[in-house]
Amino acid sequence: MVTRSLATCQTKPCQSESWRHSLAASFTDVAALLESLGLREADIPDLDRATPPSFRVLVTREFAALMRPGDPEDPLLRQVLPLALEQARIPGYVMDPVDDTAADRGHGLLQKYAGRALLIATGACAIHCRYCFRRHYPYAGLGSAAARSASALARIAADPSLSEVILSGGDPLMLADDQLERLVAQLDGIGHLRRLRIHTRLPVVLPNRVTERFCAILADSRLDAVVVIHANHPQELGADAEQSLGLLRRAGVTVLNQSVLLRAVNDDSTTLGQLSERLFRCGALPYYLHQLDPVSGAAHFQVSDQRACRLIQTLRQQLPGYLVPRLVREVPGADSKMPI
Ligand SMILES: *Cc1c(COP(=O)(O)O)cnc(C)c1O
Ligand code: SF4
Q: pTM for the whole thing?
């Protein structure tokens, strides 16, 4: 599928490149983001004006456009705003809360569970979520993408117990379609694989990343494709995201969503219920609702297990079973995500 006519690209802006332009226009500066929302720095108590360069402010224009102007407590804004609280050392909140280091099979291939392995396809993301459990992941130590994927692919090919590969990151859709096409073709050629899963937030925060070519790559693969998006609040799923998820569905892709339970973002049953309804409308089913991984810098998002269980109970009373996500936590060393 390298064939989508190059001539088209020369005569009008190439669809497969327009997302790069969108990405380049992202907010990398909290003052500019606040200004676009009609807010002043003084409106945000505890704002951290000097975020560390290792996990700087990064927000796409598309995501910012879904925020409510003038609302310092907007649930989307809250997910990306750096607070001074992040710098506090809090017992139990660590750099690598899910013990990725122990699961690393070398070169960015993580295996924790039977039958599936997770490939860190890239360290880059289009948005920096302040609660991210990989916010301190040593991406820089991964080596070059090409060397990494060669070695990871060799390991996958040598392990017939694997039926599924998960592309994760970072965000695998930060790779160009060319790179993804090569990677998918290589995975396609590994006979014991049956499924390809992609964990990505880009259909939500940069919907035009879901190009026709990307959909065609998945549709043409022998592997059954699953795309797991990441949305935490119904407001994140605008008309553009709905359209992009529609493209994936029409390409035969199964679309699921995972959310993180976040204090003052989505820790109420009305919001979670509306999220499930909105996801279904867009063609996605709720999969996991994660209890926050205790990553250093994210303690202010934590919701208690007791409260989390009550929320799920309420959802069960209000929604069909298929719209109730599984409430789980990742326990280092466990052989699956653990139900709570
Ligand atoms: C979360 C995770 C998976 C996926 O688990 P599922 O329960 O299949 O969604 C796979 N590998 C690793 C390393 C993970 O962290
Ligand atoms: S998109 Fe995912 S990997 Fe990237 S910062 Fe957000 S939570 Fe972390």
A: 0.93
